Amino acid sequence: MVHTQTLPDWSRAHGAPLFAAQLRYRPEDFQVTEELGWDLSDDGEHDYLFIEKIGANTQWVAKQLAQYAQVPIKDIGFAGLKDRHAITRQWISVPRWNSPDWSGCNVEGVEIHRLERHRRKLKRGAHRGNSFTIKLRSLSTVEMEPIDQRIAKLTNQGVPNYFGEQRFGRNGGNLGLAESWAQGRRLPRDKRSLAISTIRSFTFNNTLSLRVTQTSWNQLQIGDKANLEGSGSVFDFSDIDTSLVNRCQAADIHPSISLVGDGSQFEPTHWQEALEKARVQEGQRSLRLLVKNLSIQMERKDLVLKFTLQRGAYATAVLRELCTW
User: Fold this and answer.
1) What architecture is the 38-126 domain classified under in CATH?
2) Regarding the domain with residue range 19-25+131-292, which homologous superfamily does it belong to in the CATH classification?
3) C-alpha to C-alpha distance for 175 and 197, rounded to whole angstroms
4) Are 291 and 307 in contact (CB under 8 A)?
C-alpha cells in the first residue's frame, strides 16, 4: 500500500545537497516568466494578454477574465498553470467577441503588461518553456567553490526530470485522493484528472529514482524510447548502436519511459487496474532535463539562481540537486 502523505526522498544524481535554504519566503523570491517560442499573428478573434500575477492561481485568473469579457470560461486559453505563491508572467487568450476594453479590467493581484491578437485560442503545452529567477534565503555557511562545481555539473549533465512535489499536493495529500479513486470512489472530472496525474507522476518518479540509483538515468536502455531534445517527439529503437550512444552523450536525445496507462504493468496493481478501467492512454516523459542559461549570484547571504527549462519541467528538480529547503 502506498503511504498517502509522505513523499519519498527520490535519489539525487549529483550528490548530497550542499546547503539548506529558505525557499519562497516572499513571492518575489520565486519568479517565473513564460516563453511562448513562436510569433503571434497580430490579428484574429482572440486577445492575448501577457499578465503578471501575484498570490493568484492561473485558473482563478482565467475565471475573472472570462467574467470581465463575458465569455464562457471554457473558451479562455493558457499554456500552463503557474505557481500561486510566486510572481509569474504568462499569456492568457480571451475571445474578443464582445470587444472588451482591457484598460478597465481590475483583477486583484493581476497586471496586464501587453495586449496582442492571434487567430487561435492558446492551447495547453503550446509554449516553449519557462525562465526562472529564484532567491534562496537564510543560507547556512557555505563555500562557493563546491556550489560552482555543482552548478557546472547541472549545466553540463542536466538533472533527473522529476515531477515536483507540488504535483502531489500539500504534504503529498493528492496521493490520498489517488488512492481513494483507485479503490472505486467516484470523483468530479477535475478531481479525477488530478488523481490520474498523481498516479502517473508518482510511478514515474519512482522509476526514475531507480534509474538514478543505477546511474542509467542519462543512458538509453532497451525498452526505453528516445526523446528528441526540446520536443515531445519520441522514437523506438531495437538496438543501441554507436550513433545512438553518441547522440545521447551529446544530449541530442534522452532516454524516455512511459507515463503509465492502459496496458502498463506496475505496482500497486489496483492503481494499474484503475487506469485500465478508465482507459488512460500511456504517455512518455524524458528521464533527463537540460538546464539552460544557468547562472548563480550571491546577494549578501542569499543565493540567486537564474535558468530556463522546457515546458512541463519543474524548477524544484534543479534545486533539489543543489540544496534542501
Assistant:
1) 2-Layer Sandwich (3.30)
2) TruD, insertion domain (3.30.2340.10)
3) 10
4) yes
Joined together, the cell numbers standing for residue 307 give: 535558468
- Give the integer Cα–Cα distance in Å for 298 and 277: 52
Dmax (CA) of the chain: 61
**Domain ranges for the chain:** 19-25+131-292, 38-126
Strands 110-118 and 159-160: unpaired
The pTM assigned to this predicted structure is 0.93
The string of pLDDT tens digits covering residues 122-180 is 999 999 999 999 999 987 777 899 999 999 999 999 999 999 999 999 889 999 999 99
pLDDT, one tens digit per residue, over 291-321 is 999 999 998 889 999 999 999 999 999 999 9
Query: How does 174-184 read in b/e, with b if 16+ C-beta sit within 10 Å?
Result: bbbbbbebbee
Q: List the beta bridge partners of residue 258.
A: 284
Could you tell me which residues are beta bridge partners of residue 296? 305
Q: Please tell me which residue in 9, 29, 39, 83 is annotated as part of the active site.
A: 83
For residue 42, indicate whether it is catalytic. Answer: no
